[in-house]
Amino acid sequence: MAFEVNDAERMRIDSSGQVGIGESNPQELLHLTATTPVLRMEGASRAYQQYVSGTSFTIRDVTAGLNRVTLDSSGNLLWVSLTHPVKRWNYY
Fold it and tell me: How far apart (Å, rounded) are the C-alpha atoms in residues 47 and 12?
């Protein structure tokens, strides 16, 4: 089932129930495709985003305006906390 806006497909639910947003051939239960795909989760007092930008995956605390965790394409993990402002782990 395809959903179109202005004659362009925006979302699809395939026969197995997988949903593609910006993706006509979803490979997972939820498959987002965009230049910078963003998933936002919001509760009563906090909002977070998960997104891919360039070659990095980031979890952002929208409420605090901080990137909390970033994983780059080399496997470097960078996270920010209030008690330890910046930490980096390198895995080899």
Answer: 26
Q: What is the pTM of this model?
A: 0.71
Residues 81, 52 share a domain = yes
β-pairing, 38-42 vs 47-53, is antiparallel
Contacts of 1 (CB under 8 A, 6+ apart): 12, 13
pLDDT tens column, 35-51: 989 999 999 999 999 99
E strands, 22-91, where? 30-32, 38-42, 47-53, 56-61, 66-71, 77-79, 87-89
Residue 31 three-state SS: strand
Residues 42 and 85 in one domain: yes
What's the domain count of the chain? 2
Q: Which domain holds residue 10?
A: 2-32
Q: Are residues 50 and 24 in the same domain?
A: no
